Amino acid sequence: MKKVISATSSIVLDQRIQRKDGTYAIKLRITFQRLSKYYPIGIYLSSEEWEKVNGEKPRGDFKDYKILLNKIELNAINTIRALPGFSFEAFEKAFNKQSDLSKDVLSLFDEYISELKLNKQYGTSESYQNAKHSFLAYIKSKNRKRLNFGDITPEWLQNYEDWMLSQNKSITTVGIYNRCLRRIINNAIDDGLFNREFYPYGKRKYQIPGGRNIKKALSLQEIQQLQAYVPKNESEANARDLWLLSYLCNGANLQDLARLQYKDIGSKSLVFIRQKTKRTTKQDIQPIIVSLIPESKKLIKKLAVPSQDKNDFVLGILKGSEDEETKRESIKRATKGANKHLKRIGENIGLQTKLTLGVARHSWATVMKNLGASDELVGEGLGHQLISTTKNYLGSFEDKIREKYQNQLLKF
């Protein structure tokens, strides 16, 4: 029987061309009938680093490289074996359909961020941008410039988590950034760029921490302290009033308050749709209806920019002629400025909670619940579709509320 000649594969350090930093390209070499072709992997190492990768017991990053390179070569071997007959063209076509472990993950972040911006999902795009910067900072701390799919193992993710915690980042932030990375990986699987066999998340792999972030809320007594506070200047007064308006408007954030138009305000209520859910297509979007009380009417009158046009923005943070990205930047600056003064106000009146505009939302939800409002009513006011989402916004019940019910446990 005639012997079948098959192709062979190996991972090599291509020393034919040295880069300016003294490194060489690591390549996959496929040899068939004495002809070799080289395929770049996207990894560059010096001769010394290459020796450490191929040492008897590589450690740290060198061990990670070894694992990655072994995966790539195994992928090539399996591709060759699966071909009915070898040719370089057939190999390249089949191999490219397999997991591209050398793909630059950060470039896929950029592509997805651009897609989100085109869809005007600016808030989500900012989250992915922050996640990308975090992963970039981590690989730079390891003297790396690229993040390849093959790098992302359960061990690598655990090391990233440990590094984040050492940088005083919260476990919640670790979870948020990991969910962004998981989305990028899932997109790559859908596009045929990554093989699910190497998926790093899940049971017995790396599990994204769910570390629940306990929401902070002010009690009614603390809110009354804030309301009675005498501002030291106009900036403090404006920040305090914005907080109180947010609180009295179901905890509406500044993204929504800044977009309020005169046509949204009636004699007894105001109506708006949350920016966060405006573009949602998976659910019916319900408008938020806020009952106006005398105090909220006074605050609107105090903060409003006078206008004769019902389409003008009430607070004057936005002009109306800007593009969406400019609007978001204006709101972000206003939020940052208000939070700066609110922090100082909170310290002045002795609050244990760091005072920010975001605290108004959690305070409204928790105070309403403590006053006896149902989860459904609170959820409707917040614009939530699920009760589970509402519960994440509810702070701990005040001691006197718990005590009230505890004392009734043996009363008949």
What is the element layout, followed by pairings?
Elements: E1 8-14, E2 24-32, E3 35-45, H1 47-53, H2 60-82, H3 88-97, H4 105-118, H5 122-141, H6 154-166, H7 171-190, H8 220-228, H9 234-248, H10 254-257, E4 269-272, H11 275-278, E5 288-291, H12 294-303, H13 324-348, H14 357-370, H15 375-382, H16 387-393, H17 399-406
Antiparallel strand pairs: 1-2, 2-3, 4-5
Could you say what the CATH topology of the largest domain is called? hpI Integrase, Chain A
**Spatial order of the strands forming the largest sheet:** 1-2-3
Helical content (DSSP H or I, runs of 4+): 40-55%
Beta-strand residue percentage:
5-15%
Average pLDDT level = 82
Radius of gyration, CA atoms, in whole angstroms: 29 Å
Please state the structural category. Answer: mainly alpha
- Elements, N to C (H/E): EEEHHHHHHHHHHEHEHHHHHH
Q: Indicate the CATH class of the largest domain.
A: Mainly Alpha
CATH level-four homologous superfamily name of the largest domain? Intergrase catalytic core
Choose one word for the global shape: elongated
